[in-house]
Amino acid sequence: MSSEKVLIVEDEVHARSGLTELIESWGYRAECAADGIEGLERAVEWAPAIVVTDLKMPRMDGMELLNRISELPQRIAVVMLTAQGSIESAVEAMRMGAYDYIPKPVDPVRLRTILHNASRQREADVELEATRRQLRDTGVLGPLVGSSPQMKDIFNMIERVAPSNVSVLVTGESGTGKELVARALHDLSSRRLKPFVAVNCAAIPETLIESEIFGHEKGAFTGALERRAGCFELAEEGTLLLDEIGEMPAGTQAKLLRVLEDRKLRRLGSKVETAVDVRVVAATNKDPEQAVASGELRGDLYYRLNVFNIHMPPLRDHLIDVSAIAEKMIDDMNERHHCTVAGLKDSLMTRMEEYKWPGNVRELRNTIERAVILAGTGMLGVEHLPPHFGEPGFAPAPTRSSRAMGESEAGEASSEMQRYLEDKNTVRVEVGTTVDEAERQLILKTLVSTHNNKTKAAEILGISSKTLQNKLKEYQSASTVVTE
């Protein structure tokens, strides 16, 4: 049941009273007016959420009423009632901004559905405007937080670009919040009620990535036991984030470019093309121009995706935002872990603002999560930080979704491994250790047990050799960034 206000504007007495009674029976607050002039007066005074108006009326018809309502400061959804011979006029009204139309005699089921949808759309519009106001007033955009000049510039760019359908390329180091930018673009767009689908191109085996993105037909390849929609179709009318776009195989990049240009895709094994309406946001932690120069990223795809570029700065470049980001994370962690932490002590805040955060916001999140779980309540202090936090040589444990920022192999970093490996056949995990740190210890210890035989280690761990190589690059990269 809804308590939204609905104004019925209808010059025929019985139709007016019947519609008012019907709409009230659905839980709406309904009032009525006999023509457009009276309807406009009631709209100004009563501020309804929805106006249901006849098209043909004396003194002021529905088209003029629609035009006048559109000039009012409040947002009002207008639904047109049309006679059978006035459908063309109703379509014209839609072009002028009417929410919908319904022919006479009115079908109650259809009218109720239209009112329900209009009410939901209004709620979404109110929420969107509140988000934009929050952005302007406090420097918060959903999960993105920051009052530094860098973050304010990013927020302004997101707000300008979000209403369009153009592709956006989000760049920045691993852990800077690129996916959050994509979600903000989606939430501030007209697609916000449709799906948001995120795909990590680096996490999908090369043999499966085309199927995951474009879908496949039954029998398209061994193991294709049924028809499957790809990520493009799953994100229909919504937003698709292609994370780590530079890791996508060259052949798949070529097919992606064609989909972006033609707005059509062909599932693997299909002979027909399917139209798609999807906004694409791509993200990479690499320098895209260097990736193009090295052949990792197609130049034509880069230029097609890079209509707008939003670069997320590393956290060390806007340490002024650490406090606000940490406070937001504490709220999230309190809810997730049923804790009641009140905030951060000044001594802890000083330590955190002096640290360079090589893992960026993702590392900050891991640190806050660990601290909240350890404290449980009260204020977070220095004693809740990981051992040796910020000291020379301290290397944070990278998270599961971190990506390499360097090219050297971690498999050669035996000293890095040995810090975790006192016992050859046992992994000891203390309470408070993150899942990602436990995974890190398991991988490194397995490598020691196989005398650094990566193929054998990957087999024991049940992961692909490529995944293992990526993990090792992450660990070496984190260590290199700290020591440099």
TrEMBL record:
InterPro entries given in the database record: AAA+_ATPase, AAA_lid_NorR, CheY-like_superfamily, Homeodomain-like_sf, HTH_Fis, P-loop_NTPase, Sig_transdc_resp-reg_receiver, Sigma_54_int
Protein name, as recorded: Acetoacetate metabolism regulatory protein AtoC
Modified-residue entries (4-aspartylphosphate), positions: 54
GO term, biological process aspect, one: regulation of DNA-templated transcription
Entry keyword set: ATP-binding, DNA-binding, Nucleotide-binding, Phosphoprotein, Transcription, Transcription regulation
Biased composition annotated in UniProt, kind: Low complexity: 401-417
Region (Disordered): 395-418
PROSITE patterns assigned to the protein according to its UniProt record, in alphabetical order: RESPONSE_REGULATORY, SIGMA54_INTERACT_1, SIGMA54_INTERACT_2, SIGMA54_INTERACT_3, SIGMA54_INTERACT_4
Annotated organism of origin: Edaphobacter dinghuensis
Entry-linked PANTHER family: TRANSCRIPTIONAL REGULATORY PROTEIN (PTHR32071)
SMART domains: AAA, REC
Lineage top rank: taxon: Bacteria
Response regulatory domain residues: 5-119
Positions of the Sigma-54 factor interaction domain: 144-373
Entry GO MF terms: ATP binding; sequence-specific DNA binding
